[in-house]
């Protein structure tokens, strides 16, 4: 089944499927893409440090999430929360009546 057929078939569900896909992409970005970016920015700005590596950053984020660390969950949920914030700002912007009319 091609991707376009899948989208057409699930058009009746519409927003729910799209939201699940966006949430999955956001969680994947937060859990898989952000840890190496955090490591790269840290080493670029602060320099390398003993015992620091990408794999240690991954383990710190995932072990922190398993232990309930707020910082780890902010890293993992961050991209999806940013998307939700942008959506809310767009709705607020559109709901604001124009001035002077």
What would the principal axes of the Cα set say about the shape? Answer: extended
> Which secondary-structure class do the elements indicate?
mainly alpha
Number of domains: 1
Oligomer: single chain
Residue share in helix: over 70%
Bin the strand percentage.
under 5%
Number of extended strands = 0
Give helix and strand order, one letter per element, not per position. HHHH
Low-confidence stretches: none
Give the secondary structure arrangement, pairings included.
Layout: H1 3-9, H2 15-46, H3 54-67, H4 70-95
Characteristic terms for this protein:
0% strand, 101 residues, 78% helix
Structural account:
This protein is an all-alpha fold and 101 residues long. The chain has one domain (3-95). The chain is built from four helices and no strands. The chain is extended, with a radius of gyration of 19 Å. The relative contact order is 0.11.
């Amino acid at each position: 089944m091609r991707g376009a057929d899948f989208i057409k078939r699930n058009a009746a569900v519409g927003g729910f499927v799209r939201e699940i896909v966006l949430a999955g992409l956001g969680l994947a970005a937060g859990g898989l893409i952000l840890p190496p970016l955090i490591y790269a920015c840290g080493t670029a700005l602060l320099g390398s440090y003993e015992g620091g590596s990408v794999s240690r950053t991954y383990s710190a984020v995932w072990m922190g999430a398993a232990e309930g660390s707020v910082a780890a969950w902010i890293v993992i949920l961050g991209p999806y929360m940013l998307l939700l914030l942008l959506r809310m700002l767009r709705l607020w912007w559109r709901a604001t009546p124009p001035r002077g009319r």
